[in-house]
Amino acid sequence: MKFIFSYLKKYQKLVAAVMIIKLMGTLGELMLPYVLEHLVDEVVPTRSIRQVFLWGGVMILLAVLVRQLNVGANRLSVRVAKESIFEIRRDLFWKSINLSGNKLDGFGLPSLNSRMTSDSYNVQSFIQSFQSLGIRAPIMLIGGIVITLTMDVGLASILCILAPIMIVVVVFVSMKGIPLYDKVQQSIDHIVRIMRENITGIRVVKALSKEDYGTRRFGGANHQMAEKEIKAGVVMALPGPLMTLILNIGLTIVVIIGAVQVNNGVTKPGVILAFLTYFNMILMGVMALNRVFMLMSKANASASRIAAVVGTADDMVPLSDKEAFHTKRNEYIIFEHVNFSYGDESDVKEDKDKSPKEVSSEWFDGMNRQKCLEDIDFSMKKGASLGIIGATGCGKTTIINLLMRFYDADEGRIFIDGKDVRTYDKDELHQMFGVVFQNDVIFADSLKENISFGRDVSMQEIEGAAANAKAKGFIEEYEDSYDHRAVVHGANLSGGQRQRVLIARALAANPQILILDDSSSALDYKTDAALRKAIREHHKSATTIIVAQRISSIMSLDDIIVLDEGRIIGHGTHQELMANCEMYREIYKTQMGEQAV
Ligand SMILES: Nc1ncnc2c1ncn2[C@@H]1O[C@H](COP(=O)(O)OP(=O)(O)OP(=O)(O)O)[C@@H](O)[C@H]1O
């Protein structure tokens, strides 16, 4: 809750205005039965039509005023809720896209997704309802009791006994509800993950006729979520009927005692009429209180999940010169005896019984760590080119991840241009790179925007990059050329076209370091060779690293590293590796044919 209120601080005045207007509206509402009682008991017996119309008019005016006040307060409360959730989402998004690789792995994309959507929605609903119901409910409850006390102490004492019982029930049940809603939100993460996997991999699912399998997986997760929702819903739905029962019993007692009193001339009929209305109002107040507590339970669980991300400490802050490593070597990129392991998030994900807060603080500490890179040691001169080859999962991409400081090495030192990579400001560092990752993303936007990608890049540079990436030809065949729109994930482009647009994106800003991670696998050999030639000719000064499975993509580069299970087992030019590296020779033989050796 502290997290939510920290965002409401700036709207203090608006929230206060909502509450004051709501207070006035509720007081007006409370006056209505009182006026009704006066009309029935005092005005009607005078048989004065004028007076009846006058007090009837007062009631109508009061009702209209109450309505207007409620509408005004609701509008303001919606505004506060919308603006504060806008800020919460903005901060959550900003933090999410700036999370370090380790923390991103820890939270998981599906979970970040549901924090951005369903969790934010829960918080928004609470902010909105707490401003109006938060004041209306207690005022109706307390006001109703106070007014009935002034009318008939005996009858009102029935309410005085029932109200605290109802409040205790609501509070008790809400306390039980909070942890249950935590679990519901965790199931939403799970469901979002399965949805993402199935939607992203829809083609594979269809191609292998695995719709049933996908549906079964989703069905399992859906079932789990439904169970948790039902459990939370059953608990939170308990107070409603219980309260109606308690109040109806109270109402029956009031009607019976009231009837006797009216019969004996002790009480007037208008009082009983007013009592019945106040009873209803009190019931509505308690129900509203129940709703506020229910929304609060959900929002509390959701807010701590959002706060866990927003409040996570930035672990990739640039190091000061004092803390950093230094080198006298003058190569442009240097890896010195680097070791690295990813944290294993599976042990965290299983810990479903812990609150998100507890989990998030532990995620990044005691994770199982498998060694991924061991004693990686190489360097590159400025403008040089390096190929990295090796079996899948041997750690090729991880080297890039460390170079771009998505993760920090466990041991060893990495330098770019004579500076410890950890001393660079994140933006400064990333602006040095033009990069295409494996399965990189094409956005649902024009091809022009996909290439320029929000950078200050002229149309001439876009066209130049497209030409070097061998994308110019197919782009200019479209009637709308560079304005042609790609759909989500570039599904209206072929694999090779997607890769060429991505390479154009990497080349567009004339990067100092160019990284192509398995980014030409969908290109035919001829286009791949033409692409490398264009890069050599037009991006001479760029220090280039090409990660590839295809030996033909890297054999002409200045230097090649052969990786095996996270270790460098071969390093040199193509000729040197052919002479000295058994695995390289094997890859060459397999891909280029026996006689090529
Ligand atoms: N975010 C991550 N969290 C945990 N383990 C990871 C993560 N990313 C990669 N790994 C593991 O690290 C190892 C190296 O992965 P990496 O992506 O560097 O391999 P790669 O050589 O690029 O593979 P490929 O050629 O298939 O792309 C693999 O065993 C992989 O499962």
UniProtKB/TrEMBL annotation:
Q: Which InterPro entries match?
A: AAA+_ATPase (IPR003593), ABC1_TM_dom (IPR011527), ABC1_TM_sf (IPR036640), ABC_transporter-like_ATP-bd (IPR003439), ABC_transporter-like_CS (IPR017871), P-loop_NTPase (IPR027417), Type_1_exporter (IPR039421)
Q: Where is the ABC transmembrane type-1 domain?
A: 16-298
Q: Where is the ABC transporter domain?
A: 357-590
Q: Which UniProt keywords are present, listed alphabetically?
A: ATP-binding, Cell membrane, Membrane, Nucleotide-binding, Transmembrane, Transmembrane helix, Transport
UniProt GO cellular component terms: plasma membrane
Location relative to the cell: Cell membrane
Main localization is: membrane
For whether the record's keyword set contains Ribosomal protein, the answer is no
User: What superkingdom heads the lineage?
Assistant: Bacteria
Q: Can the keyword Signal be found in this entry's annotation?
A: no
One Pfam family for this entry, by name?
A: ABC_membrane
One of the entry's Gene Ontology molecular-function terms is:
ATP hydrolysis activity
Membrane topology according to the record: Multi-pass membrane protein
Segments passing through the bilayer: 14-36, 48-66, 133-149, 155-175, 234-259, 271-289
Q: Which PANTHER family match?
A: ATP-BINDING CASSETTE SUB-FAMILY B MEMBER 10, MITOCHONDRIAL, ATP-DEPENDENT PERMEASE MDL1, MITOCHONDRIAL
The protein, known as: ABC transporter ATP-binding protein
